[in-house]
Amino acid sequence: MSATPLVSLVNSTNSTNSTTANSELVSPLLGASVAELTAWVQEQGQPGYRGKQLHNWIYDKGVRNLADVSVFPKSWREKVIDVPIGRSSLHYRSVAADDTVKYLLKLADGEIIETVGIPSDKRLTVCVSTQVGCPMACDFCATGKGGFKRNLSRAEIVDQVLTVQEDFQQRVSNVVFMGMGEPLLNTENVILALKSLNQDVGIGARSLTVSTVGIRDRIRQLAEHHFQITLAVSLHAPNQTLREQIIPSAKPYPIEDLLAECREYVEITGRRVTFEYILLAGVNDLPEHALELSKRLRGFQSHVNLIPYNPIKEVDYKRPNRDRIQAFVNVLQQQNIAVSVRYSRGLEADAACGQLRRNKR
User: DSSP secondary-structure letter at 63?
Assistant: First the structure.
């Protein structure tokens, strides 16, 4: 019996319908559940228990080719040798002084994406990409300067986590969808990847964070899945005029509408929203900006994460000094807004927030 052709259910559309365990298994195999893999092996005339074996070899052993699954009969391995598991190849790797590792990964079609491994004493965090490039064109971000190519499949997203886990020889504890691309422009595959990272790779839902600039109706769609993940919204300004200056793509989605949808997210999921706010010296970091932001967020179940700007060569934005940063923090705290400052890791390797590019550095 020859291998049944795999039908790809992962595409670049943004439907949020989840994949069910039926005869049409997502190709490649990576990202598939035990139930999906079991249904597929049975279609090939193999006993159902081989689905669990395959799941173990993909997620625990990190196999890259079905020919290497030694518990399978050799005759069957030869028939399914061309079925892709969905692993990328390492194109480039660099290590920063703080031990953050940047990976450029080559996909099956030759496109390059960036992934970052961020170790600490108690955890290993992976910053994953969701698109090849990014269409949002945020003015301060290197990724958007390179244009947009396509969405990533769930396999290509999950692969990034397994790649970092294998390289560090350590279990990944946290995943942040803050790499290249806008996750909610790839909603279907992001949702599938979240499920796989939680259920197949074994990462707790509350250790998964999805970051978005804000796409109309997509935050609500995410909320309807009732994931106990963290939602991080890249706000970066306290009003619409300034936000459009920093994020041109924000023009069709007024800040009032975005915040209203975020409040719905809190009501539906019971989870607070984190607001990411990159501090640009002299642009959005003044005390009056902090006061305006606090008025926007008053009574909101939220947390503000301030990120001092990480420089890129294409623009002249500057990082504010520590006194200016602390003054911004003080205003928010005086207004009873939960706030923290995140100094990005990986600056020396161009792997920090806003610095990710597809080209080798």
Answer: -
Q: Which two tokens stand for residue 224?
A: 């309807």
CA distance 16 to 232: 19
Q: Name the H helices within the chain.
A: 34-43, 49-59, 74-79, 142-145, 154-168, 187-199, 218-223, 240-246, 255-269, 287-297, 322-334
Catalytic center residues: 114, 353
What is the pTM assigned to this prediction? 0.87
- Each of the 361 residues of the chain gets a pLDDT tens digit; together they read 333 334 333 333 333 333 333 334 547 999 999 999 999 999 999 999 999 999 999 999 999 999 999 999 999 999 999 999 999 999 999 999 999 999 999 999 999 999 999 999 889 999 999 999 988 877 777 776 678 899 999 999 999 999 999 999 999 999 999 999 999 999 999 999 999 999 999 999 999 999 999 999 999 999 999 999 999 999 999 999 999 999 998 999 999 999 999 999 999 999 999 999 999 999 999 999 999 999 999 988 999 999 999 887 667 889 999 999 999 999 999 999 999 999 866 555 444 444 445 555 4
